[in-house]
Amino acid sequence: MYKHLQERYAPRPPVNVASLMRMKSEGEKIACITAYDASFATLVDDAGADLVLVGDSLGMVIQGHDTTVPVTLNDVIYHCQAVARGLYRPFLMADMPFMTYASREQALENAVRLMQEGGAKIVKLEGGAGQVEIVEFLASHDIAVCAHLGLKPQSVHKVGGFRVQGRDEAAAEQMLRDAKALEGAGADVVLLECIPAKLGAEITKALHVPVIGIGAGPDTDGQILVLYDVLNITAGRKPRFSKDFMLGNASPLEAVKAYVQAVKSREYPGPEHCF
Ligand code: KIV
Fold first, then answer.
1. 34 C-alpha vs ligand 1 centroid, how far in Å?
2. How far is the CA of 56 from the centre of ligand 1 (A)?
3. What span, in angstroms and rounded, lies between the C-alpha atoms of 241 and 106?
4. Which of 138, 140, 212, 249 pairs as cysteine with 222 (C-beta 3.0–4.6 A)?
């Protein structure tokens, strides 16, 4: 059955790389959020999210680990399958967990599993200059890739904590170079985490592909948050960039709708969420 042809002419056709590019060029902000199961996938779809990430943040918010390092490929595949069953319109992105893309061949094999078994349409990996070859290899096999720069949670033990990245001039210049190199290698989306707003704006302006930010200021092409932060489910201290959208909203659906609306209207992030 040619489901894609039916979907293309639906009132709200499924989001893909081309629609993300169009949103960037038309200046429409891209509203992204994480999800880990079918019920929440349907909820964030109903709320109008454009892109849903099955993030390895599941290691922290679902499994209760302190970091994303223990998450395995099978964990992401399991949650991705559940999310895929509940999703219709948003573009489905899956994280490649720690050490699942250490070589080109390993990256290809695991990206294929995320797509074929998990139902992902784009894979995300954390990396800078060192991952250019991997991104190029995946792109040469027509796999859609998102490159995650800035704070890279899988490197937490090497970096020594969850800290804002790119604060000094040399680091900022390096990140801009890395972003351009990753785009040149074929990345379809770049995600920036926890960097100064000024650098977020600079990288977004320099790239042709959509740039999604989390703690990267108001000028990126889109925003992403962890669903459990949006719903204020996460216990304890929250990152500066997160916002509790349950405040003033009566249900999880209303809260996610408010988040999507706040991204689209540029009300979120405010200066208090930026570095
Ligand atoms: O794993 C995740 O949820 C992420 C987001 C924080 C961007 O990578």
1. 7
2. 6
3. 33
4. 212
Q: Provide the Cα torsion 220, 226, 227, 228; round to 10°.
A: -150
Burial of 12 (0-12, 13-18, 19+ CB in 10 A): exposed
Is residue 64 classed as helix, strand or coil in its secondary structure?
Answer: coil
Q: Which structure tokens are listed for 1?
A: 């059955």
pLDDT at position 53 over 70: yes
Ligand 1 neighbour 197 (Cβ under 6 A) = no
Q: Is 193 a catalytic residue?
A: yes
Q: Is the CB of 234 under 6 A from ligand 1?
A: no
Instruction: Answer yes or no: is the C-beta of 215 below 6 A from any ligand 1 atom.
Output: no
Domains (range + CATH), the chain: 3-273 (3.20.20.60)
What one-character DSSP code corresponds to residue 13?
Answer: P
Angle (CA) 200-132-167 rounded to 5° is 30
Given a cut of 70, is residue 1 above it in pLDDT? no
Which amino acid residue places its CA nearest to atom 3 of ligand 1?
55
Q: Residue 10: is its pLDDT beyond 90?
A: no
Based on DSSP, count helices (H) and strands (E) in the chain, helices before strands: 12, 8
Ligand 1 centre to CA of 2 (Å) is 33
For the chain, give the percent of residues with pLDDT over 70: 100
- Residue with the two structure tokens 């720069």: 149
Report the alpha-carbon distance of residue 21 to residue 28 in Å, rounded: 10
132-140 and 169-185 helices, crossing angle to 10° = 20
Residue ranges in the chain assigned as alpha helix (H): 3-8, 17-26, 38-46, 58-61, 73-86, 104-116, 132-140, 156-159, 169-185, 197-206, 227-230, 252-264
Q: Which atom of ligand 1 is nearest the CA belonging to 226?
A: 3
